Amino acid sequence: MAVIACLGWGSLVWDSRELPIQRKWFDDGPLVQVEFARKSNDGRITLVLERSAIPVRSYWTIMDTSKIEDAKEFLKIREGTKMEFIGIWSVGADSPSMILDIPEWARARGISHVIWTALPAKFIKNNDIPTEVQVIAYLSQLTGAVRDNAERYVRLAPRQIDTVYRRRIEAELGWTPVDSMT
Fold it and tell me: Fewer CB near the last or first residue (10 Å), C or N of the chain?
């Protein structure tokens, strides 16, 4: 039976919703290059794979299905995206760009397939990578519910997702990591 892992580094970890996973997220996933580089439709700046980012340790969980097509569909639905933005790795393939050493990591855990959200950076237009200064300026001008939602996302991002932009956001805006927000 195929064991399918799902990688996470943002809201998926603390808000899996209907994603069918087995019990919990583990904090010893493969290294990933992620950064706060995507302006979402609701105004948050979210974590996405980014080639220029320094690698950080991801989270992972086992999917509660052994069918890769089902696992991809479940992640697509949870993320509210298109199938083209669901990444996949399977035994025998090389490590994908921006996710390091998956073959060795997966082999050590008996994992056959790995899936993840592969949305690109986006700021002013698609695939536009914002600078630290742009992200801080943007987040600084937010107000009301949009600001609250953006702050919540940054603060709830797992502590080990310690990126360059996150450090700048913490220093400039005081949005330090928390384990939960009511």
Answer: C
H-helix or E-strand spanning residue 132: helix 132-141
Q: Average pLDDT of 89-113?
A: 95
Residue 125 has pLDDT above 90, yes or no: no
pLDDT at 181: 60
Surface-to-core class of residue 76, CB atoms within 10 Å of its CB (0-12 exposed, 13-18 middle, 19+ buried): middle
- Would you state the torsion angle of the CA atoms of residues 114, 33, 159, 131, taken in this order, to the nearest 10 degrees? -140
Q: Which two tokens mark 15?
A: 């808000």
pLDDT at residue number 104: 95
Percent of all residues in the chain with a pLDDT value above 90, rounded to a whole number: 93
């384990």: which residue's tokens?
A: 179
Model pTM greater than 0.90? yes
**Hey, what are 120's tokens?**
């690109």
Q: Which residues partner with 89 through β-bridges?
A: 114
Asked if residues 88 and 82 have their Cβ atoms less than 8 Å apart, the reply is no
C-alpha to C-alpha distance for 6 and 177, rounded to whole angstroms: 23
Helices (H) and strands (E) in the chain, counts: 6, 8
Closest by CA to 71, choosing from 92, 88, 47, is: 88
